[in-house]
Amino acid sequence: MTNDTVLNIQDVTVDFDGFCALLRVNVAVKRNTIHFFIGPNGAGKTTLLDIICAKTKATDGECTFYPENRSPVKLTGMKEYKIVGEGIGRKFQVPSVFVNLSVIENMVLSLKDNKSIWQSIFYRISKEEEKSINEILEAVDLLDKKDEKAGSLAHGQKQWLEIAMQLVQKPEIIMLDEPAAGMGKPETYKTGEILKKIKDQCTIIIVEHDMDFVKQISDCVTVLHEGKVLLEGDCDLVLANKTVQEVYLGRGGERNAEN
Ligand SMILES: Nc1ncnc2c1ncn2[C@@H]1O[C@H](COP(=O)(O)OP(=O)(O)OP(=O)(O)O)[C@@H](O)[C@H]1O
């Protein structure tokens, strides 16, 4: 762990009734970086995200969040919604935007203090909120779609809207579960460029199988295998590692095994 650590995962073990999904996992995530977790199916990647956001309880070990201007927060043992309130957001693989609402209505609904759909439709946003929403929509290239129904957006645009809906809450960390799943190469590339733009505002943790995408934007890659950290470093180091090639890359475990 160093001074720029935003999240420290320390000796985390998860035992599901005798099956060890994670064993003494240690990872330090640096602030304003894009940090990937990769590895074969069943390696424990999703379980690790579940631990960070308290969806799953660790059998042992702990996670600590180091906010920028506040004291450290021990995440272990906290309620899921409290972790969101601390500034750690998560986006799941399937987009969960409100398809019958416009892009802007979806954004207003995501503002921290707005509780219901009806409240958000009739809510008058402040000038400051409007400026912030417009800036975020611009960053995800949806500003010109702001009055369109979310349901009319292409798959990739829905994913970008959901990322935008996370950003409107000004999180310090966002976790993304396979954000490029179901996208073609141009959309995947554009998703990467969007994420590179927003890492100035927050730290991005991603579980992903698409190695082109990992190559394009990763600052750090942690390879998990059978619940343990196999290797951690930059993408070149990971790609060149023989064991990683044997257990993951060479087995066609990712979508671009030919690269
Ligand atoms: N609630 C649970 N109870 C029992 N076993 C579980 C539970 N959740 C996950 N597992 C097991 O833990 C292991 C790790 O699962 P996890 O979903 O974290 O893997 P993953 O690396 O995300 O895989 P994938 O790439 O397929 O999504 C798997 O063998 C899975 O079957």
Structural overview:
Keywords: ATP-binding, Nucleotide-binding, Transport. This is Urea ABC transporter ATP-binding protein UrtD. It comes from Aequitasia blattaphilus. With about 260 residues, this protein is of the alpha/beta class. It has one domain: Rossmann fold. It has ten helices and ten strands. The strands form two sheets. The protein has a six-stranded mixed sheet, with helices on both faces. Strand 1 and strand 2 form a beta hairpin. The structure holds adenosine-5'-triphosphate.
Keywords:
single chain; about 260 residues; alpha/beta; 4-stranded antiparallel β-sheet; 10 helices; globular; disordered C terminus; binds adenosine-5'-triphosphate
State the assembly state of the protein chains.
single chain
The whole-angstrom Rg is 18 Å
CATH hierarchy: architecture:
3-Layer(aba) Sandwich
Detail the poorly predicted runs. Answer: 255-259
Mean pLDDT across the residues is 90
Give a short summary of the structure.
Residues 7-251 form the ABC transporter domain. This protein is α/β, with parallel strands linked by helices. It is built from 10 helices and 10 strands.
SSE inventory with pairings:
Layout: E1 5-16, E2 19-30, E3 34-38, H1 45-52, E4 60-65, E5 73-74, H2 80-86, E6 88-91, H3 103-110, H4 117-122, H5 127-139, H6 155-167, E7 173-177, H7 185-198, E8 203-207, H8 211-217, E9 220-225, E10 228-233, H9 235-240, H10 242-247
Parallel strand pairs: 3-8, 3-9, 6-7, 7-8
Antiparallel strand pairs: 1-2, 1-4, 4-5, 9-10
The chain binds adenosine-5'-triphosphate.
Adenosine-5'-triphosphate binds at residues 16, 19, 21, 39, 41-47.
